[in-house]
Automatic annotation (TrEMBL):
The lineage of its organism: Eukaryota, Viridiplantae, Streptophyta, Embryophyta, Tracheophyta. One of its GO terms (biological process) is RNA catabolic process. Residues 186-220 are annotated as: Disordered. SUPFAM superfamilies: Ribonuclease H-like. Endonuclease that specifically degrades the RNA of RNA-DNA hybrids. This is Ribonuclease. Keywords: Endonuclease, Hydrolase, Metal-binding, Nuclease.
Length: 258
């Protein structure tokens, strides 16, 4: 999915780009780009790290940036099944590499449209310096700034953060759960281990399973290469919560690998 204005009128001007991602399963990478001459106007658009904004405000900002002819945007939506397949394949691709490839794919896509990118700002994935060097080797004509909390520091990345988060929110709302025929609680948050909504959802699912291990539908709905459910299951297993007294007394552990 990308912006309707495939090749903007200002494409031949020096441009900057911001890139950020949202969530897991699906994982969405979003970018926003504009002429460097428009950079000073970005602050007046009130973009901010999408995680600090309510959903209604994110939607409002997203619709406004779509109407702004000085802005372009694009997204890469990575299906949870694709994440699982890559992370569990014989020759595994780790999450950092998947993230790097997605970001570089967005850069290449915009360059191929004829946009003259000269600067790019990214929220880091892994070591910032190593990531910056990797990007510079791939795209030597672009100056890269890779930083922690870039979505809070640079308005162009804040805009990309909104594009990514709104795209993911909408994808989840429209998501048909093919793996199960059950109604599920859809308040599962971002999928990150530290997300309070994700932690509460997993606690409810483990309680519903009744045996102290992840329920079938919880496993189905999680990206299998992602550690959230595994970590939660291990915590519950260690506590013995939900297990029969026979197993608790003998401290018999759940078998997860054969």
């Amino acid at each position: 999915m990308e912006s309707e204005c495939l090749t903007p009128e200002w494409a031949s001007q020096p441009c900057l780009m911001g890139i950020d991602e949202a969530g897991r399963g699906p994982m969405v990478y979003g970018c926003m780009y504009c002429p460097i001459s428009y950079q000073s106007s970005l602050a007046s658009l009130h973009f901010a790290d999408s995680k600090t904004l309510k959903e209604e405000k994110r939607e409002e900002l997203y619709e406004s940036l779509k109407l702004d002819k000085s802005l372009g945007w694009a997204v890469d939506v990575i299906d949870p099944r694709e994440l699982s397949a890559k992370m569990l394949a014989k020759n595994k691709t780790n999450l950092n590499e998947i993230s790097h490839n997605s970001a570089m794919g967005l850069i290449k896509r915009v360059l191929d449209m004829g946009v003259l990118l000269t600067e790019a700002y990214l929220d880091t994935v892994g070591d910032p310096d190593k990531y910056r060097i990797k990007l510079s080797e791939r795209f030597p004509s672009i100056k890269f700034v890779v930083s922690k909390k870039a979505d809070s520091l640079f308005p162009i990345v804040s805009g990309a953060s909104i594009v990514a988060k709104v795209t993911r929110d909408r994808a989840l709302k429209e998501w048909l759960v093919e793996e199960t025929g059950e109604d599920i609680n859809r308040n599962f948050g971002s999928g990150y281990p530290g997300d309070p909504e994700t932690k509460a959802w997993e606690a409810d699912e483990n309680e519903e399973s009744g045996n102290g291990s992840s329920s079938k539908r919880q496993a189905k709905l999680s990206s299998f290469g992602f550690k959230t459910c595994e970590k939660r299951s291990e915590e519950i297993e260690s506590s013995g919560k939900g297990r029969c007294k026979f197993l608790q007394a003998r401290k018999i552990q759940q078998l997860t690998q054969f």
